Amino acid sequence: IVKTLLEREWIRIVGYRDVPGKPAMFATTKVFLDHFNLKNLDDLPPLAELREMEAEPVLDFDDAPVPQSLQELADASAEPE
């Protein structure tokens, strides 16, 4: 994940901690803010709000019936040629 964020230039290394292993410290970039249309990091929702969003499914298709036409299409594509 960190590699992807670095490649997209959404984060950058701003230093290294003075502890064994010298782990990198990261900061978000203007590219990150621009991508998400934010003026500053204070525009982000609080972590507690994000955790609540994770707990709530956005769309629940587990019990939804599959329309017959889609099921037939899925069955046909699963058959060996």
From TrEMBL:
Q: Which Pfam families match?
A: SMC_ScpB (PF04079)
Q: Does the keyword Cell cycle apply?
A: yes
> Tell me, which GO biological process terms does this entry list?
cell division; chromosome separation
Q: Which SUPFAM superfamilies match?
A: Winged helix' DNA-binding domain
Tell me which UniProt keywords the record has, alphabetically: Cell cycle, Cell division, Chromosome partition, Cytoplasm
Name of the molecule in the record: SMC-Scp complex subunit ScpB
Organism (species): Pseudomonas fluorescens
